[in-house]
Amino acid sequence: MAILFNYLENEAIMFLLSQHSDYRKPLDPVDAETLGMAAAGEVERFLTFRQNHAETPLVSLPRLAAQIGVGAIHIKDEGHRLGLGSFKALGGAYAVIRLLLEEAERKRGRIVDISELHSPEIRQVAQTMTVACATDGNHGRSVAQGAELVGAGAAVFVHEGVSEERIAAIARFGARMIRVAGSYDDSVREASRVAEENGWTIVSDTSWPGYERVPGLVMQGYIALVREALRQMPEPPTHVFVQSGVGGIAAAVAGHLAIELGEHRPIFTVVDPARAACIFETARAGHPVTVPQGEPTVMAMLECYEPSLVAWRILSRAADAFMTVDEDDAVSVMRQLANPVGDDPAIVAGESGGVGLAGLIRAISEPVLKSALGIGADSRIFLINTEGATDPYKYEQIVGASPTAVAAKNWPEAEI
Questions:
Q1: Distance from first CA to last CA of the chain, Å, rounded?
Q2: Is the pTM of the predicted complex or chain greater than 0.85?
Q3: Do the first three CATH levels of 3-87+216-408 and 92-204 match, i.e. the same topology?
Q4: What pLDDT is attached to residue 65?
Q5: How far is CA 71 from each of CA 80, 235, 361, 382, rounded to the nearest angstrom?
Q6: Which fold has domain 92-204?
Q7: What is the pLDDT of residues 340-358, one digit of tens each?
Q8: Exposure string (b/e) for 216-249, b if CB count within 10 Å is 16 or more?
Q9: Angle at Cα 62 formed by Cα 61 and Cα 65, nearest 5°?
Q10: Angle in degrees, CA 364, 326, 399, rounded to 5
């Protein structure tokens, strides 16, 4: 398995093509059902019952595409999703709703539809439930919003690296906030332990042995953005770059595209932070591995050291390549999107939001990587801005302008 190294400021930018024994095999039947067309239709139906639901924009960047020598760049901007500013709004809350409806079915002895969500009978069931999760910020906000929506309790575990601004954004939904020493992975373990002790329902976006179904539901929620993007694009993409923490969003997108497009699916590259490259190292080893915790990464929402087992099972089949980007790449792309080429629209991307674009730019700049991925003048690139400025203060520190000021560039006559 060839690995290419490019050392920049003492950080290794790594790349490899998949050579896993399961590569290009059909998805596991459970995963195919979770991410398939019937599931996608159900997710989109559920969204029609969500307040403030609207499809997020697919932003075209033709000037940037011309500058780097590709045919088209389209970015799905999840900074607008359901008032939470992140793609995670699609997953945690969706899983909470599904779990509530299933609990209501058990207690009532009949099928319960999403249309009954706000009925007194179902809210009575919700009041007996507490959902719990660990988070870097965005998943916890979605779970807390879902709990508030249905009338359930919520307990959200955050590690010491989560900013006060992100904690406050979760707490406004009424969740009980619990600080945990250590990393995100430590908070995952603590959330699971305390939830089991208290009889709470754990709603995690990562999976471990014996715990796969709920993370699968979280990933299932994400496929709504893929369905929207395929409708919005003039042609299907030839290449996709998606950032990864534990692997959930990358696996959801890669898996659904593999099902929908089959042999015509795009070349899919998973992008990790070099300082928290658990998916990359898992791909290199050929099996799930935990990477040691070191210096924190600016890509806070991707700072995970253990992969999701379900996500890796999908990516081992559906991802074509794996790479890392460094800290400067992430910061540079935030500024690039805030100060676009020519008349391309500005995009507000948080510290983790533009990492897929950072991967593309890095791959384009390295002839060997560009050739390995088959990127050329006719390539159509699909990316996801996975988050907006979920910590506005930190965003302004990095970019040098507020999120409001950057967004206003698209409407020059609007007041800032």
A1: 51
A2: yes
A3: yes
A4: 98
A5: 26, 11, 14, 11
A6: Rossmann fold (3.40.50)
A7: 999 999 999 999 999 999 9
A8: bbbbbbbbbbbbbbbeebeebbbbbbbbbbbbbb
A9: 90
A10: 95
Q: How confident is the model at residue 261 (pLDDT cuts 50, 70, 90)?
A: very high
- Catalytic annotation, residues: 88, 136
Q: What is the pLDDT of residues 68-90, one digit of tens each?
A: 999 999 999 999 999 999 999 99
139 in Cβ contact with 352 (< 8 Å): no
Supply φ then ψ for residue 354, to 5 degrees.
Answer: -100, 15
Check pLDDT > 50 for residue 118. Answer: yes
CA distance 64 to 263: 29
Percentage of residues in the chain having pLDDT higher than 90: 92
Q: How many CB atoms lie within 10 A of CB 300?
A: 25
DSSP state of 211: B
Domain ranges of the chain: 3-87+216-408, 92-204
- Could you tell me which CATH class the domain 3-87+216-408 is placed in? alpha beta
| pLDDT band at 318; cut points 50, 70, 90 | very high
What is the total residue count of the chain? 416
- Helix/strand/coil for 197: helix
Q: In Å, what is the CA distance from 189 to each residue of 193, 208, 375?
A: 6, 10, 41
Encoded tokens for 295:
């210096």
